[in-house]
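Protein data sheet
==================
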Amino acid sequence: MRVQFASQGLAGVDHVRAHAVHRLHFALARFAHRVIRARVRLVDVNGPRGGVDIQCRIQVSGTGIGTVVVTGVAANPYTAIDRTAKRIQRLVARVLDYRINRRGRSARSDGGAARAGRDAARAVLRSEGYLV
């Protein structure tokens, strides 16, 4: 996985860059065979005024994923990177799970029995007036 890093309005970028690369490799390690590129962009939205204004935007591209983007805001760049990396990890997992299951492969090994059971339960609840 190739990680591209860009920042705007931040000091001490070398340590932040190393943290971002390490955090992304850790968060996306189990998808290493799918993720081709990750882009991290940090921007100090309010400039020198301070406040909760460090925006982190992570864009991930890969096979079976397409391109997914997550943006997060925090008071310091390390927290912004950590939170956004965690969110991109969950999003990539969700996208891959959706695309695998959508192709007709069942996530369960019960052959659809769970779905039949849920449908039967819903029919009973609907007949008793609990569901509309």
Summary: The mean pLDDT is 82. The chain is about 40% helix and 25% strand. Helices lie at 13-27, 77-102, 113-127. The radius of gyration is 21 Å.
